[in-house]
Amino acid sequence: MILGPSHARRSARLMAAFLCLLGAGCQSVQKEHQANRVPQFGNVDASQPAELRRVNLPTYVIDPPDELEIAVRPSVAEWPASTFIVQPDGTVDLGFSGQVHVAGLTLTDAEAKIAAHIDQDSGATGHKASVRLSNGQSKYYYVLGTVNTPGRVKITGNETVLDAITQAGLKTYSLPEKAYLVRPHPLGAPDEVLAIDWAGIKDRGDTLTNYQIMPGDRVVVPGTKPPGLIRSLLGG
Length: 236
What we know:
This protein folds into two domains: 5-57 and 139-233, Outer membrane lipoprotein wza fold like (Roll); 67-135, wza like domain (wza like fold, 2-Layer Sandwich), CATH 3.30.1950. The protein is 28% helix and 19% strand. It is built from five helices and ten strands; from the N terminus they run H-E-E-E-E-H-E-E-E-H-E-E-H-E-H. A hairpin with a 5-residue loop joins strand 6 (140-145) and strand 7 (151-154). The model is unreliable at 17-22 (pLDDT under 50).
């Protein structure tokens, strides 16, 4: 039997729909199979700071390339500027007053060190220094794995796991349900790996594992294999 043009078009559409459904079903099964093979790292730790139990970040430690506002009283002749960038070698250049190494110091410690340096350089005692952080450029966290924009993110002190993952953006083959947070630890100390309950955070408003991000934290989002060309065309 010869089909007319309208019947042929209808048959083609039905076949395309069938193949699409078949492809989507296969993709779903394949993704579920791959997801089951991805391990869940870390443990849930209710003692960690999280969304409804945030804490203050540790005392700020100066590092390159932070920008500092530095003022000295009594004033110093030919003071070069009010804002200073911490150089790669950890120093700030105070012009004719010389350089002072401030990396690794708190702002309060830097004030004392700069004041002592000015005393010695000028030959007069009693100088006081004010050091303020004008632009923190050395404290970051990282989002890694199967996300749209992996890399480091400047930290403000208020971020949580939810902020980190939503800002990085998930791919269609991301597995946020297997996400975990890795926190830097001293050499030789046990690993600190925290499991993330993504469904709890996203679907139930459960803040237990919506951990507060600390400087240096790594949020890792695993994923399945990226879809091939055919799967991409079919919406995989």
